[in-house]
Amino acid sequence: MQPRQDLSLVLAAAGLSTRFTPNLAHFPHIKKQFWPLNGVPLVQKVYEDFKHLGLFTQIFIVVSNRFEQIYLRQLLCDESVSVLVGGASRQESVQIALEGVQTPLVVVSDIARYQTEPLVLERLLERMQGGLDCVAPALSATDTMVYYNPTAIPPYQLLERKRALRVQTPQICRTSVLKQAYKAGTFTDESSAILSLGAHAAYIEGSPNLDKLTFASDLPAHSVRTTSHTGLGLDVHGFEGGKVMKLGGVVIHSSDCGDCGFRAHSDGDVLLHALIDALLGAIGGGDIGLYYSDQDPSFKNKDSAEMLQEIYQLVQGVGHCVEGVDITLFADMPKISPYRALIKKNLAELLNMQLTNINLKATTFEGLGFVGRKEGVGVQVLVQTRALYVVHE
């Protein structure tokens, strides 16, 4: 297919995956968008398959939150794609992307339809040349179809199966018409929105390969493997008088820290910051500054434990489980011994881990450097995670 200047792509990947619950003990919170097919997350696979076609002037991917937005940007390493945070529904998410579309035609598809069919897309483009406002792929129904209306008597109405269609994506639309149609009501796809407007839509023969991945039972036969990943985090903070000091989410008594806290934009918990960086390193997610900029006033004095929980949720969502944490604290002040057990217990709770998989050790600088002069603290954290790796058979 030849590159086109009149065509953009919107990939909907903002679902919460509440119905996708694979029975995997160590990966209970993995999101469908990040299901690792041969080690490649579905969202990345679908994006690369479409991009490889070389058709699109603009590409938009809509995800569910800012953490996935930042992570996906790190994953793709492609500034030509716009990764956006979506809305509360698929329609709202697509509408957010449409605000940036500058081409007269737009293709909208779901990440959950992870098998790209170039021939279907080619036929969609050919059919669109007939002056239509939308063309979508669809398959004939193979089961008996019944329409249910609980307020009707009787509540069930038999539909003629040979006239019923299962509508799929990708769908191609005239951008201006789709924008107008979506303002008129609530819809589950683009073709229904355009039809409700009285505009011209048509359906072509789709493909079973374009069926949607909704439930774990929709997955083809596969074998589950895992891969080991390591992340290293390092952070340093200087002391500042008159502040509360936290290490690992535990408040250090003022008499043990010279009535000093840490000079920082957030609460300055240097241990948790290093741990966050280590977790991000293990998943290839960049660094803490991408997610919590010290130039953003909304993060002023933010609780680092909340930051850790938010990043840990991302770690789980992209298909990693944390196996081990090894922490080294560089400090002549405070002494860590009185707080070691409290910090380990707090980390175990925050990361849902066993105490035996968390190690915390400390060393002094014997009066050398800024640590030895008791001007600040440094922390290094090594994290090991186990990542899901799925081979479809």
Automatic annotation (TrEMBL):
<feature type="domain" description="2-C-methyl-D-erythritol 2,4-cyclodiphosphate synthase">
    <location>
        <begin position="230"/>
        <end position="383"/>
    </location>
</feature>
<keyword id="KW-0479">Metal-binding</keyword>
<dbReference type="GO" id="GO:0008685">
    <property type="term" value="F:2-C-methyl-D-erythritol 2,4-cyclodiphosphate synthase activity"/>
</dbReference>
<keyword id="KW-0548">Nucleotidyltransferase</keyword>
<dbReference type="GO" id="GO:0016114">
    <property type="term" value="P:terpenoid biosynthetic process"/>
</dbReference>
<keyword id="KW-0414">Isoprene biosynthesis</keyword>
<feature type="binding site">
    <location>
        <position position="235"/>
    </location>
    <ligand>
        <name>a divalent metal cation</name>
    </ligand>
</feature>
<comment type="function">
    <text>Involved in the biosynthesis of isopentenyl diphosphate (IPP) and dimethylallyl diphosphate (DMAPP), two major building blocks of isoprenoid compounds. Catalyzes the conversion of 4-diphosphocytidyl-2-C-methyl-D-erythritol 2-phosphate (CDP-ME2P) to 2-C-methyl-D-erythritol 2,4-cyclodiphosphate (ME-CPP) with a corresponding release of cytidine 5-monophosphate (CMP).</text>
</comment>
<dbReference type="GO" id="GO:0046872">
    <property type="term" value="F:metal ion binding"/>
</dbReference>
<feature type="binding site">
    <location>
        <begin position="363"/>
        <end position="366"/>
    </location>
    <ligand>
        <name>4-CDP-2-C-methyl-D-erythritol 2-phosphate</name>
    </ligand>
</feature>
<keyword id="KW-0808">Transferase</keyword>
<feature type="binding site">
    <location>
        <position position="237"/>
    </location>
    <ligand>
        <name>a divalent metal cation</name>
    </ligand>
</feature>
<keyword id="KW-0456">Lyase</keyword>
<feature type="site" description="Transition state stabilizer">
    <location>
        <position position="364"/>
    </location>
</feature>
<comment type="pathway">
    <text>Isoprenoid biosynthesis; isopentenyl diphosphate biosynthesis via DXP pathway; isopentenyl diphosphate from 1-deoxy-D-xylulose 5-phosphate: step 4/6.</text>
</comment>
<dbReference type="GO" id="GO:0070567">
    <property type="term" value="F:cytidylyltransferase activity"/>
</dbReference>
<dbReference type="InterPro" id="IPR036571">
    <property type="entry name" value="MECDP_synthase_sf"/>
</dbReference>
<dbReference type="Pfam" id="PF01128">
    <property type="entry name" value="IspD"/>
</dbReference>
<dbReference type="InterPro" id="IPR020555">
    <property type="entry name" value="MECDP_synthase_CS"/>
</dbReference>
<protein>
    <recommendedName>
        <fullName>2-C-methyl-D-erythritol 2,4-cyclodiphosphate synthase</fullName>
        <ecNumber>4.6.1.12</ecNumber>
    </recommendedName>
</protein>
<feature type="site" description="Transition state stabilizer">
    <location>
        <position position="265"/>
    </location>
</feature>
<feature type="binding site">
    <location>
        <begin position="287"/>
        <end position="289"/>
    </location>
    <ligand>
        <name>4-CDP-2-C-methyl-D-erythritol 2-phosphate</name>
    </ligand>
</feature>
<comment type="subunit">
    <text>Homotrimer.</text>
</comment>
<keyword id="KW-0511">Multifunctional enzyme</keyword>
<dbReference type="InterPro" id="IPR034683">
    <property type="entry name" value="IspD/TarI"/>
</dbReference>
<dbReference type="GO" id="GO:0019288">
    <property type="term" value="P:isopentenyl diphosphate biosynthetic process, methylerythritol 4-phosphate pathway"/>
</dbReference>
<dbReference type="InterPro" id="IPR003526">
    <property type="entry name" value="MECDP_synthase"/>
</dbReference>
<feature type="binding site">
    <location>
        <position position="273"/>
    </location>
    <ligand>
        <name>a divalent metal cation</name>
    </ligand>
</feature>
<comment type="similarity">
    <text>Belongs to the IspF family.</text>
</comment>
<feature type="binding site">
    <location>
        <position position="370"/>
    </location>
    <ligand>
        <name>4-CDP-2-C-methyl-D-erythritol 2-phosphate</name>
    </ligand>
</feature>
<feature type="binding site">
    <location>
        <position position="373"/>
    </location>
    <ligand>
        <name>4-CDP-2-C-methyl-D-erythritol 2-phosphate</name>
    </ligand>
</feature>
<dbReference type="InterPro" id="IPR029044">
    <property type="entry name" value="Nucleotide-diphossugar_trans"/>
</dbReference>
<feature type="binding site">
    <location>
        <begin position="265"/>
        <end position="266"/>
    </location>
    <ligand>
        <name>4-CDP-2-C-methyl-D-erythritol 2-phosphate</name>
    </ligand>
</feature>
<feature type="binding site">
    <location>
        <begin position="235"/>
        <end position="237"/>
    </location>
    <ligand>
        <name>4-CDP-2-C-methyl-D-erythritol 2-phosphate</name>
    </ligand>
</feature>
<dbReference type="Pfam" id="PF02542">
    <property type="entry name" value="YgbB"/>
</dbReference>
